[in-house]
Design a protein that fits this description.
By secondary structure, this protein is α+β, with helices and mostly antiparallel strands. The protein has one domain. Helix content is about 20%, strand content about 40%. The chain is built from three helices and six strands, in the order E-E-E-E-H-H-E-E-H. Strand 2 and strand 3 form a beta hairpin.
């Protein structure tokens, strides 16, 4: 399972309770907090532009990754979905339009 989409460079993995990992990636738009979900055709990545402080709050357990995703630094998140043919489809969503948890897969 890839921790960040091909468009981002992995900088850090943050282990969370329950055996999940959250990734911190870096790309042309800056720093992102990345949640990886399994979709029907493969990986789905929800990438929220995140400040250093937001990432530190996740590290320290003061905020959940979903808190950061629903309140990203720009008010939007990038969603990358793997397709059967190996390509990756990108979409941008407003944080205010995001459902919680796996519902993101249906919305993207």
């Amino acid at each position: 399972m890839e921790k960040v989409p091909p468009q981002l460079q992995l900088r850090e993995l943050i282990p969370l309770a329950g055996g999940t990992d959250v990734a911190v990636g870096h790309g042309t738009g800056g720093q992102y907090l990345v949640m990886t979900l399994s979709g029907r055709c493969g990986e789905c990545w929800v990438c929220a532009p995140a400040t250093d402080r937001a990432v530190q709050c996740v590290r320290d357990g003061l905020a959940s990754p979903w808190d950061v995703i629903h309140h990203s630094a720009t008010g939007t998140v990038d969603v990358y979905r793997s397709r059967v043919d190996g390509t990756v489809l990108e979409s941008v969503m407003l944080c205010s339009a995001l459902p919680t948890g796996r519902g993101v897969l249906a919305a993207a």
